[in-house]
Amino acid sequence: xxxxxxxxxxxxxxxxxxxxxxxxxxxxxxxxxxxxxxxxxxxxxxxxxxxxxxxxxxxxxxxxxxxxxxxxxxxxxxxxxxxxxxxxxxxxxxxxxxxxxxxxxxxxxxxxxxxxxxxxxxxxxxxxxxxxxxxxxxxxxxxxxxxxxxxxxxxxxxxxxxxxxxxxxxxxxxxxxxxxxxxxxxxxxxxxxxxxxxxxxxxxxxxxxxxxxxxxxxxxxxxxxxxxxxxxxxxxxxxxxxxxxxxxxxxxxxxxxxxxxxxxxxxxxxxxxxxxxxxxxxxxxxxxxxxxxxxxxxxxxxxxxxxxxxxxxxxxxxxxxxxxxxxxxxxxxxxxxxxxxxxxxxxxxxxxxxxxxxxxxxxxxxxxxxxxxxxxxxxxxxxxxxxxxxxxxxxxxxxxxxxxxxxxxxxxxxxxxxxxxxxxxxxxxxxxxxxxxxxxxxxxxxxxxxxxxxxxxxxxxxxxxxxxxxxxxxxxxxxxxxxxxxxxxxxxxxxxxxxxxxxxxxxxxxxxxxxxxxxxxxxxxxxxxxxxxxxxxxxxxxxxxxxxxxxxxxxxxxxxxxxxxxxxxxxx
Length: 572
Description:
Structural class: alpha/beta
Radius of gyration: 25 Å
Strand content: 15-25%
Shape: globular
């Protein structure tokens, strides 16, 4: 029997090709032609022209700004986008976010001390040992028998103790893994441990693994991820999580992100996943990739490792690419209270940890400094910061460099004497203010005491010394919501309502700079993004309210209408 022409493989292929070509031709360009965008007010973050009524945009770039009448007179036939009751700001910038980490965690079951509101995911607050264990067991019981159970969000100060024994009691019939709120620690049960083998040789120099407790933390987390990789990182689940990351970033009004630890799991795998998802024409933000120094090459810090790093700079495009910047890690996690603290240390007698021992950290930092890379250094406690600053002083003395822009990330707690030294060394700061909100009240009672816990994130000390300060979420360490981060920096309010060290607060304008132009400066993009000026990318965050004309305590509640990325509208 003859095959119908309409059903022939050749006809189907040609039809699909024609549909594809037509769809491509009709699809709106990500960089539309000449367009005038006007709003109730446009906040430029340019001190020479702080507010305007309208901007003219062409091929994804800003070509003019000023009054609407002037724009219309110059280009009477231009397409117009009138957002008459909206306020525009420069597109928000998230200069420290982990898309791979978030893609991994988002599909798992979240049980957290405080509630989360995410696109398609609402997480209630869970506090107290009994309540946590009840919710943990119920969530595990909902899964099919034998399936792995993985949860994120556990915090010992809010949820009690955790161990292999506890997990065996609550979840005895399937492999289970509990991920700490810090991401720097995991616990697994016996069913999980039975699936892997760990030799004495692997543990010989590893101080951050307790097999009996099923506990892998700080540097030991790498071993845990290596051993449980095939169960934790599954392609379909990871790609689905990455799609959720896109929604999270868009919901936050963000138009640029920096992956501040690329290669966290696997450099090649992450690159392929990001090319597939983040480089898509429908994604309304750009991504800059900054690898981890200790993941580069067989011998991190060697000439060969740096050559490997250099080769990455040839990959990608303006939407997704590597840049000549590198990530290093000093002391332990702030959420785990493993940051390194100066005397009197921790009030309960425990001690902090080094993720990278100081001598190795200096070896890596020196190698990349000499190779012309900007250093981004994870530093949390005042002792961790002291060691890092000493290191930078030595390196700079031996190898002087103008405008090195070494950036301290997180900077949970510094002493009152350290802001001046940060300024003197030409170091800048990308801080996570959310530590104060979620941990300030609890750390006042446990570990630090109020004299230090209330001074988490000394913004005013840093700003008064002339240090450039930006804000980041380190998502999922904080919500990827720049306005919420700005709200914490301005109001310094804990989750329980306590306001702490108000003299360290930022002004609204300083906080808005910290999520726009100063955030761009920290990743060397201030000439391209971060303010609304001629020649820069046409990136805008569209707000339903003016952040300068509302009560500062409502900053976090401003609805985000959407974003404009390189002139293309992405409405919520």
